[in-house]
Amino acid sequence: MRKITKIEPKKAALPERKRVAAYARVSMETERLNHSLSAQVSYYRAPIQKNPACPKEIWPV
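RE: above sequence
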C-alpha cells in the first residue's frame, strides 16, 4: 500500500507593523511659515508611506 503524505500550506509571515510618529511645527502664522509646515509634513510623510511595515493611516493634529 502506498503512503500518502498531506502537505499543509504555509502561511505567509506578515511583517511586523511599526508605530511611527513625526513632529512638525512652526512658531508663527505667516504665509512663508505655513509653506514651511507643509514642507515638513511632506518630508516625513513620503518615507513613512513608502515603507510597507508602517501603518497607512495618517492622523493630522
